[in-house]
Amino acid sequence: MRKKERTEAILRRLHELYPETQCTLDIDDNVFHLVVRAVLSAQCTDVRVNEVTKVLFEKYPEYTDFLSAGEEEIGRIIKPCGFWKAKSHYLYEIARMMRDDFGGEIPKTQDELMRFPGVGRKVANLIVSEMFGIPAVVVDTHCMRVSGRLGLSSGKDPAVIEKELMKILPEEEWAAFGHRMVDHGRAVCTARSPKCGDCALSEYCPSSGKKV
Asked: Regarding the domain with residue range 31-131, which homologous superfamily does it belong to in the CATH classification?
C-alpha cells in the first residue's frame, strides 16, 4: 500500500475510533485563558491544569488581574502544576506584553505568539487552530511518538515532523489529527507498552508488534 493510501486509511480509522476528538485542555471564549492553560501544561497533565485554572480564573479572570496580582500570588495558585516560579514569571510577562505590546489582545500569528515567554511552536499552533480557526498541526510528545510509529513522520524534531504531516494530511485534518494522536497515544499506543494486539491501526502500522 502506498503511503498516500495508507495515510487515508489511517485517517478513516482514526475518525471511527475518535469521532468526537477535541483538545483535552478546557477551552472557553477567552483566548488568554487557553494561553495560560497551554503554558501551564508543560510537564503537567491537562487534568491538573484544568483543575488549577478553575481556581485561578475564578479569582483572576482577566490578564489585567494577573498584573495586579503579581508573580508571587500567581505562583501560589499554580504551584501544583510544577515549575511554578518559571511559569508564574511567564504568565505575568505574557500579561504585561499584552498590555504594552499588543493593545490588550492575544496576537493571531504564530510568530507573534512565540514572542511570549513559555510559548513555543506547539503552543502557538494550538492557539491559532483552536481560537482563530487557522489550520495548524500541534506536534506534542504523543503526536511525535504515534505518527513516527505509524510511519507518517520521521525523526524527533517537532518542526520537521510538523512539515512532514502538513504535506501528507489534508489541511482540514491538521488540528483534529493532533488531538487524535493524543487520544490514541493515551489509550493504545503508549510510550513504554503499546497495546499492538488491541490496536485498530495495526494493519497499517510498520511498527506493530516490534519491541519498543
From this structure: Hypothetical protein; domain 2 (1.10.340.30)
